[in-house]
Design a protein that fits this description.
4-stranded antiparallel sheet; 3-stranded parallel sheet; 13 strands; D-Maltodextrin-Binding Protein, domain 2
């Protein structure tokens, strides 16, 4: 009897071991190829703030909309999966990409040398100029050099915060663009830096806002989609780049730019 039980136990353990190995092989293969993992899961997790118009924001019906929402949806459609949009604060989103919690981040992310050390980037899908925004009655800042010693506010680790610090500004960390403008209009900071398109979108919504552009950069930044660094994202990046290329060649990217920004930022020219 003991021998029979031992044989039965051995058979069960062998079967369980085989099943585990079979499942493990599939999971391992997917883990080594993020595109395969996304297809297997049936959805792609797309990180964005949801508070930075016109890139990602909520309309009057509280629906998540924006330039980046449509770009993200196009990527999901290209892969043939559902788009799972996850909203959060800037730093947490970038940390989530680095850890692999999110598949991609579509949120007006500029490419810079420091970020390239941590993330792999798609081809650019938008181009942006940086502006200094001040109160309408303040003429003390007329160039980027005038930021030296001034107090500004931006999300921590954003390109805009880094630029302000490089020019000698004291940067206050905030959660989003709206909070930044509240600090500015209340006189608690001297200025803030942001994208040209975001300023004009805000003015379109709030034409009486007591703010203005003090200076605009000559350099154009490249906006792209970051993913977790590593070879396992090579095929995913390939599909993302194909999507961007198709959107640009069809004129859809220009159409989305004009829809949300009022001008074409899909081209470097």
């Amino acid at each position: 009897m003991k021998k029979t039980l031992s044989v039965l136990l051995a058979v069960v353990l062998l079967a369980l071991s085989f099943a585990a190995c079979s499942g493990g092989m599939g999971s391992s293969a997917a883990a080594d190829d993020m595109l395969a993992a996304i297809k297997e899961k049936g959805e792609i997790t797309i990180a964005m703030e949801g508070t930075w118009a016109p890139w990602t924001y909520h309309d009057e019906d509280d629906k998540l909309v924006g330039y980046d929402v449509e770009v993200g949806q196009a990527i999901a459609d290209k892969i043939g999966v559902e788009a799972n949009f996850v909203e959060g604060e800037w730093d947490a989103l970038l940390a989530g990409i680095e850890s692999g919690r999110y598949d991609i981040m579509v949120n007006g992310v500029d490419i810079d040398e420091n970020r390239k050390k941590t993330y792999d980037f798609s081809d650019p899908y938008a181009y942006n100029k940086t502006v200094i925004i001040v109160r309408a009655d303040d003429d003390s800042i007329q160039s980027f050099e005038d930021l030296d010693g001034k107090t500004t506010a931006n999300t921590v680790n954003s390109t805009y915060a880094n630029v302000a610090e490089a020019y000698g500004a004291n940067v206050t960390g905030v959660d989003d663009f709206n909070q930044t403008l509240e600090l500015l209009t209340s006189g608690r900071i001297d200025a803030t830096l942001n994208g040209e398109g975001s300023f004009y979108d805000y003015i379109k919504l709030y034409p009486d806002a007591p703010i203005k552009i003090a200076a605009i950069s000559e350099d154009v930044t490249e906006v792209a989609i970051p993913v977790q660094k590593g070879e396992k994202n090579a095929e995913l990046l390939k599909v993302i780049n194909e999507t961007i290329s198709e959107l640009r060649e069809s004129g859809k990217l220009r159409e989305l730019s004009e829809k949300y920004f009022g001008y074409d930022l899909s081209s470097k020219d």
